[in-house]
Amino acid sequence: MTVAESAAATEEQRLRPPSLFLMLAETRALFELNSSLLLSPLLMRAPRGDGHPVLTLPGFLASDLSMAPMRRYLKELGYDAYAWNMGRNFGGVVSKRSALRELLQRIHDQTGRKVSLVGWSLGGVYARDLALQMPEMVRSVITLGSPFANDIRATNATRLYEALSGETVDDNPEILQAIAGDLPVPATSIYSRTDGIVNWHTSLLRPSVSAENIEVYFASHIGLGVNPAALWAVADRLAQAEGEFKHFDRSGPFAIAYGPPENAQS
């Protein structure tokens, strides 16, 4: 095989961003939010929290407002939910590292407890990076539509991210490789195959005894953080006792909204 043929084969194997159709269908996020409001009595039947701190990290171009419904829901379930208080997220996995470490340290010191991290999209990439840097302060990591694995350029936001953050996706490959690997804490990736911003293959972690993927049928990227089935899954995962992990039980009230479980690997 010639060099040109090899390059062409590699290009064919690269993941592609979601289609224009899926991207335009992201408008259904409003329906997902309204569904959560209508189903709030059912959502409140989720397992109660033990009061431990939960830090929510917004996605690219989003602010704390985007995760306000989730924080309100988690507070009602008994968690100590925190916003990131850094304004709008203009990206920068490397440039945000120091500020995020300080934030996690502050919450840990104030509460005296390990902190669960819930990150939406780019916020989930931050969460996984934090867990690698400060595992002794992190209880668990839950990501929602986060592009951290495989070909992470396969999103409809890559060029804008690079333009606004000043970082290219290919910068610091050793950091990105670590984020894509196994975490030293329990990890859950919630994703949708109908995500219109992020290619869902980039949200798949390697299943293990302490790591899992949860597919939410027909969810959008923009609506994943307010989707009722996703909210239930987040609450269920956070309710696990510290130091314990069992794979998600899809027999709850939103059972039909989830894809089949994967086989855990040791």
Automatic annotation (TrEMBL):
Keywords: Hydrolase. GO terms for molecular function: hydrolase activity. InterPro entries: AB_hydrolase_fold. This is Alpha/beta hydrolase.
